[in-house]
Design a protein that fits this description.
The chain is of the alpha+beta class. The chain has 16 helices and twelve strands.
Length: about 400
């Protein structure tokens, strides 16, 4: 994941910190060496996301001046403190503690460390994963206790087992409202299962250009048995509706996540057409979905625009819809999800609502998909989609 937190740092990163004293990657730049002052050392430390230093203590104390990102400071036996830009930490002498970045953000601070005959720091054991992850769910006395429903916890855990959200620390009220709504109240409506729901959300995040949410949901999709081939087919099908310029980064992000799970790329080919057959096969599939409407579109197209109709048949349907890996009913639901998320595509939404009905997706299923997308696309797009649904269907 590209980290943008430190692109405008005041000081350069310096040298990579020793793995003996840091879990993850950190960079240290000494700004004022000990030999120039004799009494203290001043340095700049940059922690990459997920990095922290070992438990340690300073014989004569230390001061931290936070200049960027988000991180934690924790003293032995006490709750962790979340740190952001502008925070100052005064660390007393011989207090065992550690500090480092949160999981989702880099973290930068300046250290002012007093020196003694015993040195400036005494390093201790590494901070365990359990100790570190617990910090992400620690709630300070000033923060409200998050009250999640049993359903929200269960459904969230199904997609993201063991995930520790830093927003539970920084934005607890938001997490309580959103998780209870999106992972319980909304999920309880409709007739689609977890796998299909997540696939629809993935499609909507591509159309919404929500790359960060796409990465999160892609990891969740793999956890609920969405296959790598199905993920690739969602991405490929989005191209004729969203455009390659907007899909490009999503393909690269998906490749990184798939390869991190040791999935070898490229995957097995799913193509069923050739340059010679793509128009014929695509047109045949168009007519299967939309019926006589396609002949009418060809007949009514001006001569100087007929090429667009041919592109739709050969490219949108011949190159993409005819591929294996997803059945036709799922593909139509995916297209509808993308169009809803795009916004301003009501004529196309109506056409694909009818197409969905023609291939066997009833009104209950379509309303279920629209409802499941609500937390991710918002009310205006949801209400517009429902208006289109009611105009096209009567039961």
């Amino acid at each position: 994941m590209k980290n943008l937190e430190n692109q405008n740092d005041i000081f350069p990163k310096g040298e990579k910190a020793s793995a003996d004293y840091f879990t993850g990657t950190a960079w240290v730049k000494i700004l004022v060496p000990q030999d120039e002052t004799g009494s203290y050392v001043i340095g700049n430390v940059v922690f990459e996301p997920g990095c922290r230093n070992n438990w340690h203590k300073h014989p004569a104390g230390q001061i931290l001046l936070v200049t960027g990102g988000k991180g934690f400071y924790q003293e032995r036996g006490k709750p962790a403190r979340l740190l952001v830009k502008g925070d100052v930490v005064i660390i007393p002498s011989n207090i065992e503690h550690w500090h480092g970045a949160t999981q989702d953000s880099s973290f930068t601070h300046i250290v002012i460390t007093n020196n003694t005959k015993q040195g400036a720091v005494e390093w201790l054991e590494p901070v365990t994963d359990e100790e570190y992850l617990n910090c992400h769910t620690t709630v300070s006395p000033k923060q409200a206790k998050i009250k999640l429903t049993e359903g929200a916890v269960k459904n969230h855990e199904e997609l993201f087992p063991g995930y520790k959200s830093t927003l539970k620390v920084t934005d607890p009220e938001l997490i309580e409202v959103f998780d209870n709504f999106a992972f319980d109240e909304v999920i309880s409506y409709g007739n689609i299962d977890t796998k299909l729901r997540v696939m629809m959300i993935l499609a909507s995040t591509i159309a919404s250009q929500a790359l960060s949410e796409f990465k999160v949901m892609l990891a969740g999709a793999l956890n609920v048995s969405v296959t790598p081939i199905e993920i690739k087919e969602i991405l490929y099908q989005s191209i004729p509706y969203v455009g390659i310029a907007k899909v490009f980064d999503f393909i690269h992000a998906a490749n990184e996540i798939l390869q991190s799970r040791e999935i070898k790329l490229p995957l097995q080919s799913q193509s069923t057409t050739t340059r010679e057959t793509r128009h014929e096969k695509g047109l045949e599939l168009q007519k299967e979905i939309f019926g006589d409407m396609i002949d009418k579109m060809y007949e009514e197209s001006p001569e100087d625009q007929i090429h667009i109709q041919k592109y739709l048949s050969a490219n949108c349907f011949g190159d993409y819809y005819t591929r294996k890996g997803l059945d036709l009913k799922t593909r139509e639901l995916l297209t509808l999800s993308m169009l809803i998320a795009l916004g301003g595509a009501e004529p196309q939404i109506k056409a694909h609502i009818q197409g969905n009905v023609n291939v066997g997706n009833n009104k209950e299923t379509l309303l279920s998909v629209i409802t499941q997308l609500l937390p991710y696309v918002g009310y205006p797009r949801t209400l517009n989609a429902i208006k289109c649904l009611n105009e096209v269907t009567t039961n």
